[in-house]
Amino acid sequence: MSDIGQVAVITGAGSGIGAAIARLLRARGWIVTSISREPAPDTDMWLVADVADESAVADGIAEIRARFGRIDAAVICAGHYEETPALEISPSAWERMLRVHVGGLAHICAAVLPEMRERGSGRIVGIASERAIGGGSNDAHYAAAKAAALSLLRSIAVEVAPDGVLVNAVAPGPCDTPLLPADSWEREQGFLDSIPAGRIALPGEVAELVRALVEEDLFLCGEVLSVNSGTVI
Predict the structure, then answer these.
(1) Is 81 one of the annotated active-site residues of the chain?
(2) Which residues of 61-76 are buried (b: 16+ CB within 10 A; e: fewer)?
(3) Which segments of 24-111 are extended strands (E)?
């Protein structure tokens, strides 16, 4: 722990799950920084960058480390979502989805891991999706990108665990965030009645699980923990 407290970087901390994680960690004494394309008011430092841009991410992490001395935890939450039938997905849509979800994870890990490994401690949490596990209709490129990110994260977890760095993922199901449209079928009562929990998850519930992964000595390695109301079991 640094003299000023533990330092976390959260991508996509401007809204939804990322913002909930930032608020919770900050309330618990963490120094919270963000790399995001949108404002992240519940942070101590916000840097404007697209996680798909490797050099921008590397520069941002270097700036955070220069100011606070270290990074104890990284939460990769920045995302991109759109609905398109599988056979109508354009090459540019495929590229954007993969660059954000797979590239974003790879860029953050490449930037934070060398110092974590040298220090012998650190936590990384990737925010995945139930779609990575169970697939979905009209969002095949999103599901595929999230699944690829999970495989990348698990592979990284195996490589860095001997160095004291624990890497895991949280895979939310439908969650009450701006990413889920107000008219989504996943908000309809018929769908809610069909799932075991009877409701969708709240951002704060996902944030609590992320908090446990970065704060507690759970010694999980490459695990994918689901907060999905029982939609995928």
Answers:
(1) no
(2) beebbeebebbbbbbb
(3) 31-36, 45-48, 73-76
Q: Which domains does the chain have, with CATH numbers?
A: 7-227 (3.40.50.720)
pLDDT in tens, 83-97: 899 999 999 999 999
119's tokens:
């220090």
Catalytically annotated residue among 30, 46, 68, 142: 142
Are 17 and 175 within 8 A, CB to CB?
Answer: yes
pLDDT digits (tens, 9 = 90+) for 129-162: 988 888 888 899 999 999 999 999 999 999 999 9
Measured from the Cβ of residue 199, the count of other Cβ atoms closer than 10 Å reads: 12
Under 8 Å CB-to-CB from 181, ≥6 apart: which residues? none
pTM: 0.91
